[in-house]
Design goal:
By secondary structure, the protein is mainly beta. Helices cover 0% and strands 60% of the residues. A six-stranded antiparallel sheet has the order 8-7-6-1-12-13, with no helix packed on it. Strands 5-4-3-2-11 form a five-stranded antiparallel sheet, with no helix packed on it. Strand 2 (21-28) and strand 3 form a beta hairpin.
Amino acid sequence: MGYTGGEVVTKLDVSGMADGQTAGLCFFWKEFCTFGVQQRNGTRQIELNNNGTNITGLELKSDQTNVWLKAVIDDKASSTFAYSRDGKNYTSIGSSFQFGWGNYRGTRVGLFSYNDEADRGFVDVDFFHYAYANTGKRILFTEVVHDFSP
């Protein structure tokens, strides 16, 4: 993962989520940050967990099935976060997450989904795009679908 800037964008179809489930983007080294959608009592909401500090954002309408998550990495090795309901207009949330080194590895980026209430629910990952700044390199994973339901 580069430290000279870049951008990570993913599109999630959250229509298959179940109560107790959280899914989205994550960054981790010794510290961690998760950014995504959580579902509790039939309601979905944007959530940012920056090393244990939770910030909740927009409550999604029941017919809102797609959510775009974006992390913008600056040249100071930190990331800011934004979400979108249409893939065009983004709303910032929370403060930046500072990258670092854990053991012998730097900060990693990934996708996650878990349910702390039951073994159910899924999200469809429509795409995961990671663009390095100033290099012209892009890593594109499109049409990735994972169903973690039993």
